């Protein structure tokens, strides 16, 4: 029996994913159940990590380094709002990068669109994101943060975060199937990437630092999470927000990574059953 992908290039891959959409749901639900199986706190872990990071960032970046809003309570909400799109990206990235290897028992026995494996990891991460959003809304209500019209753009920045995670995740999932060193590099890469993104500090701080080094301003938004985090925070809190040019650069990088990742993933997926 020969297990082979369907035909039709990128359009065919997307068509297959739609045809197998019910399987996508079950794979995503499986990831959720496996993640919280036999845990004491369960889904509370989705809230605990950003809350702990918020406290650490508030003490180090705001109270000690005096970065961000002068009021530490305002900074706490600032940091928590910046973490939500980042945690969605990081969780999706880490899980999707190992999705092909973790699904080896399925990939070597039956055929289904291989793209569903990293895609299911991204979809399952949306559950944790939704739980954390409830906590952010509660914090905003307590702090009496007003809601402004930018909230209408929130789905756009969530979609950008998902697309960024999927684009990089496809590259890493395909590479991890052949080179198992990738799974060790991903957590380290994610940690460095977080500090290069405006999660705990305003983007203007990094842009000013780069200018002092003689680096052009357009280099920073080549990190796709710059536009995502800044845009998400603006849509929620109405503070700052990426410049249109910066947002366009980040969006362009996401599109390029997504198309490149789809092409590369599609070109090597026929070898997964052999190398696993």
Query: What is the number of strand segments?
Result: 0
The coarse overall form would be globular
**Chain oligomer state:** single chain
Percent of residues in helical segments? over 70%
Give the percentage of residues in beta strands: under 5%
Helix/strand order, N-terminal first:
HHHHHHHHHHHHH
Overall mean pLDDT: 85
Number of helices: 13
How is the biggest beta sheet arranged? Answer: none
Architecture overview:
- By secondary structure, the chain is mainly α.
- It has one domain.
- Helix content is 73%, strand content 0%.
- It has 13 helices and no strands.
- The chain has helices at residues 9-19, 21-36, 45-64, 72-97, 99-102, 104-107, 116-143, 154-178, 182-195, 203-212, 224-237, 244-268, 272-275.
- The radius of gyration is 20 Å and the shape is globular.
- The two termini are 17 Å apart.
- The model has no long low-confidence stretch (mean pLDDT 85).
Which helices and strands appear, and what pairs or packs with what?
Elements: H1 9-19, H2 21-36, H3 45-64, H4 72-97, H5 99-102, H6 104-107, H7 116-143, H8 154-178, H9 182-195, H10 203-212, H11 224-237, H12 244-268, H13 272-275
Helix pairs in contact: 2-7, 3-4, 4-7, 4-8, 4-9, 4-11, 7-8, 8-11, 8-12, 11-12
């Amino acid at each position: 029996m020969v297990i082979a992908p369907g035909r039709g290039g990128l359009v065919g891959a997307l068509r297959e994913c739609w045809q197998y959409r019910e399987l996508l749901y079950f794979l995503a639900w499986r990831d959720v159940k496996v993640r919280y199986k036999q845990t004491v706190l369960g889904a509370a872990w989705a809230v605990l990590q950003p809350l702990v990071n918020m406290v650490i960032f508030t003490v180090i970046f705001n109270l000690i380094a005096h970065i961000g809003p002068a009021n530490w309570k305002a900074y706490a909400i600032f940091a928590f709002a910046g973490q939500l799109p980042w945690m969605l990206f990081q969780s999706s990235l880490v899980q999707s990068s190992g999705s092909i290897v973790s699904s080896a028992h399925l990939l070597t026995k039956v055929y289904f669109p291989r793209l569903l494996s990293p895609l299911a990891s991204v979809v399952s991460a949306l559950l944790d994101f939704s739980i954390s959003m409830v906590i952010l809304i509660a914090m905003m209500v307590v702090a009496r943060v007003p809601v402004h019209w930018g909230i209408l753009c929130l789905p756009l920045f969530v979609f950008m975060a998902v697309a960024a995670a999927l684009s990089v995740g496809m590259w890493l999932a395909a590479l991890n199937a052949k080179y198992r060193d990738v799974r060790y590099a991903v957590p380290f890469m994610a940690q460095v990437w977080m500090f290069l993104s405006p999660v705990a500090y305003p983007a203007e701080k990094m842009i000013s630092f780069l200018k002092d080094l003689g680096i052009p301003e357009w280099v920073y938004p080549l990190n796709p999470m710059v536009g995502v985090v800044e845009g998400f925070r603006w849509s929620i809190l109405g503070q700052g927000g990426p410049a249109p040019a910066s947002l366009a650069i980040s969006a362009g990088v996401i599109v390029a990574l997504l198309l490149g990742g789809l092409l590369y993933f599609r070109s090597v997926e026929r070898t997964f059953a052999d190398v696993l």
